[in-house]
Amino acid sequence: MKRSIVLLAIVLLLAGVAVYQNNGKHDEVLAASSDMLPKPGFTAPTLSLPDLKDRPVAIGGKQEKLTLVNFWASWCYPCEMEAPDLQALSKEYGDKLQILGINATSVDKERQAREFVDQQKLTFTILMDREGSAQKLYKINSFPISLLVDGNGIVRERVEGVIKKEQWQSLIDKWLNAEVEEKANAAT
Fold it and tell me: Which residues form the Thioredoxin domain (predicted)?
C-alpha cells in the first residue's frame, strides 16, 4: 500500500513538472506562426503565377504601383459578394492601382474559376495558383484574403474577409497618398 502511494506521488510530481515546463509553449507556437504571416510592414513574398492566358505574372517585389492582391475561390460566397466592388475599384483607380486576383486553383476547379470571372465580368488580372504555392507563401487558410502591397513590395494592409468598397477606397487612398509623399520627399 505504501509503495502504491509513493509511486502515485512520483507520477503526480513528474506530471506536474511536465505541465510546468510546457506552460506557455502553445501560446509561443501560435505567436510564432502568426508572426510568419505576410503582414503590414514586411516584404511580400515573391513568385510568378500564370494568368488566364498562361502568361507568367510576377507577384511581390518592387512593382510600378500600389497592388491589391486578392485570394479567392469560385465556391466562396463572400468572394462572390466582393467581386463587384473589386471590379469597380479597378475601374475607379485605373492605372494608379494594380489588382491581382489569385484563384486558389489547387482547391478550386479551373473551369468554374473561369466561369466565375466571366459571370462577374472581371477585367483585372486573374492568376491561377494551380499548385497552391502562393497560398502557402502568403499563409492563406480562408477566403477571401487581400493584401495591399506598395511599390517597394512592402505589405501595407492584410484584410481577411470582405470589407465595404468605401473601406477599400479609404485604405487605397491612404497608401496612394503615402507613395506620392515618398516620391516628393525623394525628389527634394
Answer: 38-177
Please name the helix (run of DSSP H) or strand (run of DSSP E) that holds residue 59, with its range, or none.
strand 56-59
Q: Cell 504571416 appears where?
A: 37
What is the Cα–Cα distance from 12 to 10, expressed in whole angstroms? 5
**pLDDT digit string, tens, across residues 104-150:** 999 999 999 999 999 999 999 999 999 999 999 999 999 999 999 99
Distances (CA, A) of 15 to 1, 10, 18, 26, 85: 21, 9, 5, 17, 55
Tell me: do 149 and 168 sit in the same domain: yes
Q: How far is CA 121 from CA 65, 68, 82, 87, 90, in A?
A: 23, 18, 13, 8, 12
Number of domain units in the chain? 2
pLDDT tens string 27-85? 443 333 445 668 899 999 999 999 999 999 999 989 989 999 999 999 999 999 999 99
Verify that 45 and 25 share a domain, yes or no.
no
Looking at the structure, do residues 143 and 125 belong to the same domain, yes or no? yes
- Host domain of residue 6: 1-30
Computed from CA positions of residues 96, 104, 132, 110, in that sequence, does the dihedral angle turn out positive or negative?
Answer: negative
Examine the domain organization and report whether 54 and 75 are in the same domain.
yes
| 67 shares its domain with 16 | no
